[in-house]
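Follow-up to my post from last week.
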Amino acid sequence: MRIDVLTLFPEFIAQAAGVGVVGRAVERGLVAVKAWNPREYAAGNYRRVDERPFGGGPGMVMLPEPLEACLAAARADGAMGPLIYLSPQGARFTQARARALATTPGFLLLCGRYEGVDERFIEAHVDEELSIGDYVLSGGELAAAVVVDAVGRLLDGALNDAASAAQDSFEDGLLDCPHYTRSERLGTAGVPEVLLSGDHARIARWRRQQALGRTWRRRPDLLARLALSAEDRRLLEEFIARQASRADAP
Ligand code: ADE
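User reply:
Got it. Predicted complex:
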């Protein structure tokens, strides 16, 4: 896969794509992340990339010409797939979108700065607009890093244990269950007994119930979107009943 990022801060993207799971995916040749700086394609001695907006008002807007030349250079170099503009006006980026993007040969990300990008560039060249949440960042780079990370870790061979991605939060629309590990200091203190039982069916059932219960408690909006199986409903009812009987429930 190939991800091309149009950004005034290419070093930011190089950093984000250079560490951890995504850094390893790059090393393994699963994904190439290439940054393109519109400033290098801007005309004149000052290499202007922004201008005051028509109609007045505060702030500057990114000019279309450097973006157009930068995009053309990336495409000529082989950048492929849709151009995705990261902005607070976009559709919410989700695990489902990450999963879909991870099956494609590539895409391009456009990072805005200042007050945004000239609308005519967006209309002519942008295929999709994505937001990573209802807050305003000072630029699209952090959002692009989020997309690169969420997609990169899903590529076949990126995670050392492929099964772990399937168990992530949101993969089945639920939050993840709690995890415990062998800690020298804590030992088995506070670890639910079932996890020490070696009974894999019981453990799987407990994990499912915790995932359902946590989602019910913390993100009822997610739960409302799911059609739970009869078994899931039973597990959740049991969880809720147990909560109600525990006055000190967290
Ligand atoms: N750029 C600025 N804020 C953003 C957000 N919330 N999501 C994506 N891109 C952004």
